[in-house]
């Protein structure tokens, strides 16, 4: 933005130039003498483009609007990033709570399996029903493993969002 403002300032300023031109010829600058003579011309050149003064105010407004839009985009980006970080942090806490519940479920399923094994040993429960309880315990362990992976995924997403390694 500052470069664009400086370009506007340069655009409406006058431009000065020095020039020197020399030669040796017949005739020289005096047309009445018919012989070879050296000559030179030196001077200062001034050029000023008034057209840029007509659009200067509008160009400054465009630059100011661009600056405001850039600030607004930055604020929106920061807001969205903070919102995303909050959501990811909530998901991590939720998964940690779920993992605690999974530990409790595994403990209860393990107790049920042990009770089923004792009932099978006493002959009051069939082997099929005991296998169902063993399967349920195994499924709850698999669910806990899935939740651990999801927790790690949420942690890495948060690290990616916050640009931490």
Automatic annotation (TrEMBL):
Q: Which domain of life is it from?
A: Bacteria
Could you tell me which Gene3D superfamilies the record lists for this protein? Answer: Outer membrane efflux proteins (OEP) (1.20.1600.10)
Protein name in UniProt: Outer membrane efflux protein
